[in-house]
């Protein structure tokens, strides 16, 4: 998941101005504790359940932005997509762990040429669209071609596309045939890359490779009825109201070990008020209900209720791959010691409270985590419990040229981000720095960070990038150099550029090797870069999702941030 | 006052393209709410006969009104409350200094806020009034609620009073000009009024406020910038003038034909002196009534806009902003006190201004029973 | 009368055109850029330019406006050249966010707004006119003072305050009413009239508290005025019974301005009860408008603004016409 996914979720959630109005006794403050040692352990409800049949009722506060796999950067769409589309490979979720890449339409994870520049996949036999037509490699090629038409599909996923040799290809509607992909026969598909990319199998798990039949491509209207290749198909879809999925009899379970497809049907209740969702789930008023809303549709003030035993036993939980950080504009705060002093002066614990405390996020010391391939230990002087180290901070600033006033920019739709600024404002006052809080229209937040209006300090979030199990797809976009290696990269909103470290990153991009080997090198460079404090890690998302009492196999996806629909089932 | 709660500016309750002279007929003997009506209209009708009374008695309009107001207990009480509220707002820095707090310092450690059970909820001691924090502290950021309420009063009242001033000046000048000069001037001004009255104000303001704020500068007051307040004043003021202008125009139109004005003209009084000595004083009554009615409307309008997140924004306090904060994250459910403070302040203030407005209207209305 | 309506109709069209143009222009000045919002993430300038094409924002302002407005006359094509889709008449454009027909979005939202509006209007009219009449009949007695006092308080209760208090008391603390759900949008659905009633009761009350108070004042004031008029005195002197006078003569003349006020309020409310819908999460017109404004969704904002203006203007025309019919003292020119 990349920034747009995150941004998109943030927008969807904040735009609701949602209210929760669930009753319940008032907690005695101070009693109970959410901060046990294993507080962040993943919890799956009804693990190992295999009973078929029944209906799962999915409650959502907003409609899907789109159901078109070629125009989606949204996690909710990716989650529901598991039910009606399949991709060459698949990112299989395990709670608390990065998804594992497994073959889906393809027979294996692909064969790579020696130079790392060509990847070849073979399709399984017996794959069909919902109308009975066989799925060929040409269908997949066409689907990828579509996602190059960015002037039609503004949300087209681009991770795969930017790895392929595209020569400025503009999509099938204006440019015709794409040279970056060959289809020697109906079951073989060959991808040509610009540079070796060890995580390529993860790139073809993105929805670009979900087959879209050319004769059914209604362009932007495709979202109203995408053609199914998965275990379910769309029976009815009333935008903004409801959707019903029923079994797709053309799906052959023998070709698909990844999806258990237990329930007979899924119904989606779209744009139910967020308040109603949390109220219904907490009260178990529909035993078959789950939600795809972020943070399980819960608000900080609901945290106390999660400790009630009746609710606790229906609460699936898991850490996500999403981490929020405060980035410094290293072009305006150039002295690493000043950055470090500011970092040490921060009360990160108080900032975590703004996220809702331990039920919503875990304090983190790094952008990357130990469950990712190739992780090496990261070092920082930040207090692990998030308390400020004022004395050390003041000492660092002695005799330094300290800026009198800094600007913190935040996305204006989310009160939490402003509150983080308010907290920071207090913290910095103690080391003699004034902080101005500057709202940025939420919709354009990241565009502003990439422009010359980048504030001195800004929050940003990252959910693992193209391959959430890989260190590289976090480090490179956030701290890496530009395409030509001469300056900072486009989404590197710290504007971090160090001749030695950034140069090494640039070289590492072209290197051939396994994701694990290369990951270690990336992680080491990340650790080195972090010694000059270009950013301060804050909180890694932790999601609690309450489900109805009949729901089984409910796990919180590391990537989806909500209940994984591919394995969920209901007791009847 | 119309329904400021649903539309932050004065509600358009007027036929947008009413023929220019229909107004004259509807204003004289009040057949109770001709084509344009609504509460405002209803009040306007009661206020309309003011001129006659004033001319007959020869006593100053405002003097009579003041006497009447002093005779009503409710009016006096409302006036006292209004004065107290204004005083409270003016003295906000003094009061918070006595309390020893300020509206911006946040207290986020475990000493103040729950960190485990409901993270962010103030500990019980801080959730309710105490000698240290007169009205407790906020959930989430732990700022002093009394200080925010007091400074919020300044901002809410400043916005309401200034925007009312803008509306009254614009409405009186344009309305009087349209009524007095007639002809093309009247046509142009009337068409503009129609446009303003037919616009769905709240929707427009929702999209206009962010534009104004981004053009004028930030939304926070803590660094001394008054621009966010200015943008609200301009927007509320700009959308409030049209109705008053309409009424003033009607008044002037009928005044112009009155005998005493004709007489003045016959005596060779200059246009300037007619406007200044005859027209303006006679319109003052209706303008005064409207101005008092507009203040509470604008207070609620500010609250509504800030509540929706487009008006005054945190960290700047205003009563609407405080309501917004109480609703965000559902804090008002676990900490109802946090909702009660701004809600109470708002209701008491609006009520006091409304009662005062009623008293002013009744005082200027010769038919009033009191 | 026909001439009057014709003139009003022409003026209405002109006014709507001006309003649509003003809204469209204002939008262009806004701080949010829908194109860079559309691509979010690594929004390189090239990507923003592509999104601009996708949203049709690459064309000059005037041609965008003309092409938007042409959708009101006939179906039109929307989207990037080469990949356009048809937007059926009456086309109000397609949402920048979901590419859904704006007409469909409005059709979906309208029943919710109608639900909120209809119940609230009935409630406040009955309560407001009823109490207003009662107060007028009992002038200066205790009942009158009580009602007038209550009206003064009611008129001073902002919707956010009433709404949040109602939620706090009836939903959260005592749990006697459900939180509004979007599954119920009419009394004829699965939930039946009872479910519909309970679902919308709180929003109705929140609106009615405020509006009843205004109706009480106007009704009372007008009734008292009418009682004092000549024809009432005549009627009384003719020895007609008191209730007879009140209902035969007084009510008709006294209620007329209330009817006028009601017509205008209906027109206003059909454009969306923004605050009420927001507080109770009712996905009606007002709720949709706020979301669209936040997300920079121009086609949706445009459509709702024009629709709301349309209702306001129509309500004014209807009220003027009705007024002339009801009250013979007024003649339309």
UniProtKB/TrEMBL annotation, chain B:
Membrane topology summary: Multi-pass membrane protein
Listed transmembrane segments: 74-98, 159-183, 195-213, 225-244, 279-299, 337-357
Q: Which UniProt keywords apply?
A: Cell membrane, Membrane, Transmembrane, Transmembrane helix, Transport
Chain intervals for the UniProt region annotation (Disordered):
1-48
Where, per UniProt, does this protein localize?
Cell membrane
Under the heading Pfam families, the entry gives: BPD_transp_1, OppC_N
Q: Which Gene3D superfamilies match?
A: MetI-like (1.10.3720.10)
The primary location reported for this protein is: membrane
Question: Which domain of life does the UniProt lineage start with?
Answer: Bacteria
ABC transmembrane type-1 domain ranges (all copies)? 153-357
Family matches, as PANTHER family: D,D-DIPEPTIDE TRANSPORT SYSTEM PERMEASE PROTEIN DDPC-RELATED (PTHR43386:SF1), OLIGOPEPTIDE TRANSPORT SYSTEM PERMEASE PROTEIN APPC (PTHR43386)
**Which protein family is it in?**
Belongs to the binding-protein-dependent transport system permease family.
Official protein name in the record: ABC transporter permease
Q: Which organism is it from?
A: Streptomyces cavernicola
From TrEMBL, chain C:
Keywords, in A-Z order:
Cell membrane, Membrane, Transmembrane, Transmembrane helix, Transport
For this protein, the record's PROSITE patterns field holds: ABC_TM1
Q: What is this protein called?
A: ABC transporter permease
Cell compartment(s), UniProt: Cell membrane
What membrane topology is annotated for this entry?
Multi-pass membrane protein
Transmembrane segments in this chain: where?
Answer: 112-134, 146-174, 194-213, 258-280, 300-326
In which organism is this protein found? Streptomyces cavernicola
Q: Does the keyword Cell membrane apply?
A: yes
- Per the record, a Pfam family? BPD_transp_1
Q: What family does the database annotate? A: Belongs to the binding-protein-dependent transport system permease family.
Any coiled-coil regions, as ranges: none
List, alphabetically, the Gene3D superfamilies matched.
MetI-like
Q: Where is the ABC transmembrane type-1 domain?
A: 110-319
């Amino acid at each position: 998941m990349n920034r747009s996914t995150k941004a998109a979720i943030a927008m969807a959630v904040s735009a609701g101005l949602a209210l929760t109005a669930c009753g319940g006794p008032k907690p005695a403050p101070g009693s109970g504790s959410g901060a046990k040692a294993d507080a962040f352990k993943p919890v799956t409800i009804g693990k190992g359940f295999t009973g078929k049949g029944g209906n799962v009722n999915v409650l959502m506060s907003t409609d899907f932005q789109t159901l078109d796999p070629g125009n989606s950067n949204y996690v909710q769409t990716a989650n529901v997509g598991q039910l009606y589309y399949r991709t060459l490979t698949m990112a299989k979720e395990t709670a608390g762990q990065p998804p594992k890449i497994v073959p889906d339409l393809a027979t294996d994870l692909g064969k790579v040429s020696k130079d790392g520049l060509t990847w070849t996949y073979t399709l399984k036999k017996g794959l069909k669209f919902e109308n009975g037509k066989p799925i060929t490699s040409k269908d997949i090629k066409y689907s990828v071609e579509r996602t190059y038409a960015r002037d039609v599909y503004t949300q087209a996923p681009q991770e795969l596309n930017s790895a392929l040799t595209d020569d400025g290809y503009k999509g099938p509607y204006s440019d015709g045939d794409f040279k970056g992909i060959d289809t020697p026969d109906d079951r073989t598909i060959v991808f040509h890359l610009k540079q070796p990319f060890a995580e390529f199998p993860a790139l073809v798990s993105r929805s670009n490779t979900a087959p879209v039949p050319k004769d059914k491509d209604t362009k932007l209207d495709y979202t109203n009825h995408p053609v199914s290749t998965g275990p379910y198909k769309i029976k009815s879809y009333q935008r903004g109201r409801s959707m019903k999925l029923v079994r797709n009899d053309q799906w052959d379970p023998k070709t698909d070990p990844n999806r258990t497809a237990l329930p007979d049907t899924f119904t989606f209740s779209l744009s139910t008020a967020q308040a109603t969702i949390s109220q219904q789930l907490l009260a178990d008023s529909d035993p078959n209900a789950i939600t795809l809303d972020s943070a399980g549709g819960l608000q900080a003030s609901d945290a106390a209720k999660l400790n009630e035993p009746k609710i606790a036993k229906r609460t699936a939980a898991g850490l996500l791959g999403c981490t929020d950080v405060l980035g410094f504009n290293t072009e305006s705060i150039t002295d690493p010691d000043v950055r470090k002093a500011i970092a040490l002066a921060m009360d990160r614990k108080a900032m975590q409270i703004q996220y809702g405390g331990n039920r919503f996020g875990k304090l983190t010391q790094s952008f990357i985590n130990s469950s990712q391939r190739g992780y090496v230990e990261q070092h920082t002087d930040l207090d692990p419990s998030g308390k400020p180290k004022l004395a050390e901070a003041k000492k660092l600033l002695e005799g330094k040229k300290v800026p009198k006033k800094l600007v913190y920019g935040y996305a204006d739709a989310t009160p939490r981000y402003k509150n983080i600024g308010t907290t920071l404002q207090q913290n910095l006052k103690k080391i003699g720095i004034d902080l101005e809080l500057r709202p940025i229209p939420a919709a354009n937040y990241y565009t502003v960070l990439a422009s010359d209006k980048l504030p001195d300090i800004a929050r940003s979030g990252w959910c693992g990038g193209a391959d959430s199990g890989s260190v590289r797809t976090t480090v490179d976009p956030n701290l890496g150099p530009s395409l030509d290696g001469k300056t900072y990269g486009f989404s590197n909103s710290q504007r971090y550029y160090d001749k030695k470290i950034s140069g090494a990153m640039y070289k590492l991009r072209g290197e051939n090797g396994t994701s694990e080997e290369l990951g270690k090198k990336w992680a080491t460079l990340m650790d080195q870069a972090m010694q000059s404090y270009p950013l301060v890690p804050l909180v890694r998302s932790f999601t609690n999702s309450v489900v109805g009492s009949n729901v089984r196999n409910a796990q919180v996806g590391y990537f989806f941030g909500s209940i994984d629909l591919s394995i969920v089932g209901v007791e009847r | 006052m119309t329904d400021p709660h649903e539309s932050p500016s004065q509600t358009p309750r007027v036929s947008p393209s009413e023929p220019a002279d229909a107004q004259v007929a509807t204003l004289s003997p009040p057949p109770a709410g001709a084509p344009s009506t609504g509460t405002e209209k209803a009040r306007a009708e009661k206020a309309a006969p003011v001129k006659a009374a004033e001319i007959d008695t020869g006593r100053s309009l405002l003097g009579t009104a003041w006497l009447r107001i002093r005779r009503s207990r409710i009016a006096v009480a409302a006036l006292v409350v209004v004065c107290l509220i204004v005083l409270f707002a003016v003295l906000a820095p003094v009061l918070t200094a006595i309390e020893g707090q300020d509206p911006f310092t946040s207290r986020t450690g475990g000493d103040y806020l729950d960190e485990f059970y409901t993270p962010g909820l103030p500990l019980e001691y801080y959730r309710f009034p105490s000698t240290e924090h007169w009205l407790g502290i906020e959930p989430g950021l732990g700022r002093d609620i009394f200080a925010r309420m007091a400074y919020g009063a300044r901002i809410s009242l400043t916005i309401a009073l200034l925007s009312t001033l803008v509306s009254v000046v614009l409405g009186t000048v344009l309305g009087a000009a349209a009524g007095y000069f007639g002809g093309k001037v009247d046509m142009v001004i009337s068409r503009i009024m129609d446009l303003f009255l037919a616009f769905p104000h709240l929707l427009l303001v929702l999209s206009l406020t962010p534009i104004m704020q981004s053009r004028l500068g930030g939304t926070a007051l803590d660094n001394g910038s008054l621009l966010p307040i200015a943008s609200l004043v301009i927007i509320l003021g700009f959308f409030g003038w049209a109705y008053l202008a309409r009424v003033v125009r009607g008044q002037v139109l009928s005044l112009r034909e009155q005998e005493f004005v004709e007489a003045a003209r016959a005596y060779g009084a200059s246009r300037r002196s007619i406007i200044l000595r005859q027209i303006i004083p006679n319109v003052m009554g209706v303008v005064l009534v409207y101005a008092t009615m507009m203040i509470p409307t604008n207070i609620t309008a500010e609250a509504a806009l800030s509540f929706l997140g487009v008006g005054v924004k945190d960290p700047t306090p205003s009563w609407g902003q405080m309501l917004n904060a109480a609703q965000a994250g559902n804090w008002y459910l676990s900490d109802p006190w946090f909702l009660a403070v701004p809600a109470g302040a708002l209701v008491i203030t609006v009520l006091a201004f409304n009662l005062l407005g009623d008293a002013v209207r009744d005082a200027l209305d010769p038919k009033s029973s009191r | 009368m026909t001439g009057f309506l014709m003139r009003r109709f022409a003026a209405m069209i002109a006014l709507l055109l001006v309003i649509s143009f003003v809204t469209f222009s204002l939008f262009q000045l806004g701080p949010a850029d829908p194109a860079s919002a559309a691509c979010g993430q690594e929004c390189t300038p090239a990507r923003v330019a592509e999104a601009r094409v996708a949203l049709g924002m690459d064309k000059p302002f005037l041609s965008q406006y003309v092409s938007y407005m042409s959708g009101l006359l006939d179906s039109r094509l929307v989207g990037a050249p080469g990949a356009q889709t048809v937007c059926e008449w009456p086309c109000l454009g397609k949402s920048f966010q979901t590419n859904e027909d704006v007409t469909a979005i409005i059709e979906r939202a309208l029943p919710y707004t109608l639900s909120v509006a209809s119940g609230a209007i009935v409630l406040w009219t009955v309560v407001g006119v009823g109490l207003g009449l009662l107060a007028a009949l009992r002038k200066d007695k205790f009942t009158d003072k009580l009602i007038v006092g209550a009206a003064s308080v009611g008129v001073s209760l902002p919707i956010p305050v009433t709404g949040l208090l109602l939620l706090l008391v009836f939903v959260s603390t005592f749990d006697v009413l459900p939180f509004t759900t979007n599954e119920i949008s009419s009394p004829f659905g699965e939930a039946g009239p009872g479910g519909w009633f309970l679902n919308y009761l709180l929003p109705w009350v929140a609106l009615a508290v405020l509006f009843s108070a205004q109706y009480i004042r106007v009704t009372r004031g007008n009734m008292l005025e009418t009682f004092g008029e000549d024809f009432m005195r005549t009627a009384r002197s003719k020895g007609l019974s008191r209730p007879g006078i009140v209902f035969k003569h007084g009510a008709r003349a006294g209620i007329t301005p209330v009817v006028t006020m009601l017509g205008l309020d209906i027109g206003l409310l059909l454009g969306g009860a923004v605050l009420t819908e927001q507080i109770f999460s009712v996905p009606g017109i007002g709720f949709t408008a706020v979301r669209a404004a936040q997300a920079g969704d121009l086609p949706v904002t445009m459509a709702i603004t024009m629709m709301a203006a349309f209702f306001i203007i129509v309500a004014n025309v209807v009220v003027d016409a009705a007024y002339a019919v009801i009250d013979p003292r007024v003649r339309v020119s």
